[in-house]
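Quick start: what a row looks like.
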Amino acid sequence: GVDTSKIVRGGDRVGIYFLEKGASQRPSKVIYDRAGSAIATATIADFNWDEIFEGADWFHFTGITPALGDNVAEICLEACKAAKAKGITVSCDLNYRNKLWSKEKAGQVMGELCKYVDVCISNEEDANDVFGIKSEGTEVTAGELNKAGYKEVAQKLTDRFGFKKVAITLRTSISANDNKWAAMLYENGESYFSKEYLMHIVDRVGGGDSFMGGLIYGLLTYTTDDQKALDFAVAASCLKHTIYGDFNQVTVEEVEKLMSGDASGRVSR
């Protein structure tokens, strides 16, 4: 059911990456192979945003895309401008990757793009790496999260860029295999926190993307209930951590079952 008709095709190859899957105290490692890929060699002229955005309600991009080159950053900026001109909601996951660009470059480019963003998604490190905004009393490598401090982070992000909503994922890393997982959603001075899940991880790659997909779905579905939208996003991404590969192959019903409190993992017969 995903419409692929607006995908622009070109270039010589598709970008890939290699993942060395971690376990216990050994972290996962990623090697990117994105140089010369179709998106890395694309130009502004390749995209007709008026046509692409016809009938669209929401545009999402991540910090990984503009990191691939100045030309791709320009494409993202043109897309954001076109989306705002059409009244389309724009969301962005900061997604800082130090193997793709520097913190200084990320701050410069993302700072310009975020002027057009309505919903910003970050984690405990990205806001600090990209914009120098940090939650006091938190040390991610020690597994300590100060939830109250993230309200200040969200407020500072909102003050700087005028975001309508800020979502911050809260991950406590016990080891590569076991994490605690929760999130916060901030809007107009109000902060909503999800429940916290203790996860035994099958594959954490795609955890952030599944949170974002769940949040977009939740905000569009539960239009007057930010708490429920957040709870859906966290439950969806919790389930993704139990699935191999990038894609969250679960149903809405499965997510809602976890939201309702059934986290037993008992066999469904």
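That is the whole record. The CA atoms of residues 218 and 232 lie 6 Å apart. The radius of gyration is 18 Å.
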